[in-house]
Amino acid sequence: MVSEEMRGFLSSVNQKTRKDTNKSIHQQRAELDAFMADLEVPAEVDMSDFKLAGRPARRYTPPGARTDRGILCFHGGGYRVGSLNAYNSFMSHLAIACEAPVTGLDYRLAPEHTYPAALDDAVAAFVELSASMASENIMIIGDSAGGSLTLSCLLKLKEQNLPLAGCATLLSANTDFTCSGDSYGERRAEFKEGLKAYAGDHPMDTVGLSPLFGDHAGLPPLLIHVASDESMLDDSTQLQERAVAAGVDSQIQIFDDAFHVFQIFTNIPEAREAIAAIGTFFQKKIGD
Fold first, then answer.
1. Which of 43, 76, 115, 183 could join 143 in a cystine, given CB atoms 3.0 to 4.6 angstroms apart?
2. Cis bond leading into 116, ω under 30°?
3. What pLDDT was estimated at residue 37?
4. Which residues lie closer than 8 Å to 97 by C-beta, 6 or more apart?
5. % residues pLDDT > 70 (the chain)
6. How many domains does the chain have?
């Protein structure tokens, strides 16, 4: 049964068919932070700010956490918006579910910084985090653009013959900048236009932008979450097909009566259930 909270969000989401592109990027960032500010942050989670690979980062540590394993999180926002502050609640709940510290990275955003700035930050962050714990004890997770960045990071690490993460979770990941999937429908042009801010002069099918088209062989286990009626559905289903064909231990969960990256709205029961499932995946794949 769909929760009352989810029904309310679905009604709100269905009424918002287009983004207000007349607002400045600074207004969009501020409004997202304000919109997410009221989400509960568990008091028992310790938050500490530091620098990771030269970028601002924040570590969320739950009580009794094991420090020999952890999670590296890349927030969503189309590579243009999103922040650690906006994701305080999600990353705190994720830390509790995984019983491990979560490190959120404030990677560089477009339009000030175009490709491959965010990818360079992600790879450097993973490499530096791997100096404090075994790389195979780290899960990388991201939602939307952060999910794309997660997969691109894995492919870049592989390309450079660097150690890979132990597993990864992608939430409604934007894996195809060409927006080739049928699920984009009439919003295809809108999404392609929005992605240009980060792509810059690079072709949209560049693997670092569209990791769907990369060589997935040898990647660690993947957990893919996506809503059944969102525009990026095909980005996830096509990734699942390609990953499995490449021999990757990949599993996908398609959520009905949900919306794009619903997991970050931790006041929704279904979001907390999804986060708990991510914790189970982490515990299983990282192990002892």
1. 76
2. yes
3. 93
4. 275, 276, 278, 279, 282
5. 97
6. 1
Cα separations (Å) of 245 from 185, 215, 241, 248? 26, 11, 6, 7
Reported as a pLDDT band with limits 50, 70 and 90, residue 15 is low
Residue matched to tokens 């699920």: 183
Question: What average pLDDT does the structure give for the chain?
Answer: 95
Give yes or no for residue 88 having a pLDDT over 60.
Answer: yes
What the block records as the tokens of 31 is: 């409004």
What residue numbers bound the domain in which 41 lies?
A: 4-14+23-286
Taking residues 52-69, report their average pLDDT: 96
Q: What is the length of the chain?
A: 288
Residue keyed to tokens 């890349």: 74
Give ∠ CA 201-177-200 in degrees, rounded to 5: 15
**259 pLDDT above the threshold of 90:** yes
Which CATH number do you get for residue 145? 3.40.50.1820
pLDDT tops 90 at residue 116 = yes
Q: Which two tokens stand for residue 20?
A: 């207000």
CA angle 73, 76, 80 (to 5 degrees): 125
Query: Tokens 């969960």 belong to which residue?
Result: 253
Instruction: Give the model's pLDDT for residue 22.
Output: 77
**Percentage of the chain with pLDDT > 90?**
92
